[in-house]
Amino acid sequence: MSTYTIKDLEHLTGIKAHTLRIWEQRYKIIIPKRSETNIRYYDDDDLKLMLNVSLLNSHGIKISKIAKLTQEQIREEVFNVMSSSDNYSDQITQLTTCMLNFDEFQFEKVISTAILKYSFEESMINIIFPFLTRVGFLWQIGAISPAQEHFISHLVRQKIIVALDAIMLKDDKGKPRFTLFLPEGELHEITLLFACYIIKSRGFKVTYLGQSLPLEELQEVYKTTPCEYMLTVSTSLIKTGNLQEYILNLGKAFPDTKVLLTGRQIIGMDYEMTDNAELLPSLPGFIGLIDNLAKNFSLSDADA
After folding, report:
1. How far apart are CA 67 and CA 186, in angstroms?
2. In 3-state terms, what secondary structure has residue 152?
3. Residue 49 pLDDT more than 80?
């Protein structure tokens, strides 16, 4: 069983540590444990309780009322709120609980409900990616374990692959090809997979090369399957040396291709780029670029 400090609870639930202490003293809604050296800590059950309390409180239910409910009644109230909620943050909170519990069944329920209510694409943009941003932050501060991060990333990856499989491919020789890949040493694939979904769903052709691809291998692929666009994502530090050098080498290696770059290690870093390279600072910006391309080709087809 994991243990948490009051700051961990603040980061995970969104409830300020000062507020948590007041609720402890005034309503006895949560009682911290004490280590052998008299240090306060909380366990998994405390965290799950406070995630539910936070959700109910954010929907206007007073803490004085919540404190009088049993654990079962709190769960029932959460179910009722979730059944009628259009608030993305509620789904994000529920996904956090799924991650902490390694609860695949509940994850499937939350995501499937969101997809039916909004659509797969909107659910990814407004729920999954903000949730993954939270996961990354929680992992960095040590509030969650690598196993929990791997568990939830695997489930998200599966969802995108299923959505990709559902896209009907068309042999449209008039549209440009995209080649998607991650730099050598880069394994964080979710953003690239979703980009693949966006591109394919707009009717473009994709050569998907996946994780950790050496530049030399990319050049070999290009000889037999050239493309008009390339997209890569740098989330963690690559193992191929200096990232600035890699970006310049990538642009120079494919002068006739538009090279699109994004990711936490690139955005906001003011790297020098070749004329054929472009930084994509946001997910909506990328989707807008693909939508504009699709619109332009539709207009070209209509003129023809």
Report:
1. 46
2. helix
3. yes
